[in-house]
TrEMBL record:
<protein>
    <submittedName>
        <fullName>Uncharacterized protein</fullName>
    </submittedName>
</protein>
Amino acid sequence: MARWKKIQNFILTEEVTFIFDLIRKKSLFLETLLLLCVQVLSDKEIGNFPAHKAYYCIEL
Protein backbone atom coordinates (compact mmCIF):
# COMPACT_ATOMS: atom_id res chain seq x y z
CA MET A 1 0.00 0.00 0.00
CA ALA A 2 1.30 3.43 -0.90
CA ARG A 3 1.93 5.91 1.85
CA TRP A 4 0.79 9.51 1.50
CA LYS A 5 3.27 12.25 2.20
CA LYS A 6 2.44 15.84 2.91
CA ILE A 7 4.58 17.96 0.61
CA GLN A 8 3.45 21.49 1.30
CA ASN A 9 0.29 23.43 2.06
CA PHE A 10 -1.51 24.27 -1.15
CA ILE A 11 -4.89 25.11 -2.45
CA LEU A 12 -6.47 22.00 -3.98
CA THR A 13 -6.92 22.81 -7.64
CA GLU A 14 -9.21 21.04 -10.07
CA GLU A 15 -6.22 19.25 -11.60
CA VAL A 16 -5.13 17.87 -8.25
CA THR A 17 -8.66 16.78 -7.36
CA PHE A 18 -8.88 14.97 -10.70
CA ILE A 19 -5.62 13.14 -9.98
CA PHE A 20 -6.88 11.98 -6.60
CA ASP A 21 -10.19 10.84 -8.05
CA LEU A 22 -8.22 8.66 -10.45
CA ILE A 23 -6.01 7.14 -7.75
CA ARG A 24 -9.06 6.39 -5.60
CA LYS A 25 -10.52 4.50 -8.56
CA LYS A 26 -7.16 2.75 -9.04
CA SER A 27 -7.05 4.04 -12.60
CA LEU A 28 -3.43 5.20 -12.45
CA PHE A 29 -0.14 3.49 -11.85
CA LEU A 30 1.87 5.10 -9.07
CA GLU A 31 4.61 6.26 -11.45
CA THR A 32 2.03 8.07 -13.59
CA LEU A 33 0.45 9.69 -10.54
CA LEU A 34 3.83 10.86 -9.33
CA LEU A 35 4.63 12.38 -12.73
CA LEU A 36 1.27 14.16 -12.82
CA CYS A 37 1.79 15.53 -9.32
CA VAL A 38 5.24 16.79 -10.23
CA GLN A 39 3.83 18.45 -13.33
CA VAL A 40 1.08 20.14 -11.30
CA LEU A 41 3.74 21.34 -8.84
CA SER A 42 6.03 22.67 -11.53
CA ASP A 43 3.19 24.47 -13.33
CA LYS A 44 2.15 26.45 -10.26
CA GLU A 45 3.55 29.51 -8.55
CA ILE A 46 3.82 27.98 -5.11
CA GLY A 47 4.31 31.25 -3.24
CA ASN A 48 1.01 32.67 -4.48
CA PHE A 49 -1.14 29.95 -2.96
CA PRO A 50 -2.91 30.42 0.37
CA ALA A 51 -1.84 27.64 2.72
CA HIS A 52 -5.21 26.60 4.11
CA LYS A 53 -5.53 23.24 2.36
CA ALA A 54 -3.02 20.42 2.34
CA TYR A 55 -1.66 18.98 -0.88
CA TYR A 56 -0.60 15.36 -0.76
CA CYS A 57 1.37 13.24 -3.18
CA ILE A 58 2.32 9.54 -3.39
CA GLU A 59 5.59 8.62 -1.74
CA LEU A 60 7.05 5.67 -3.66
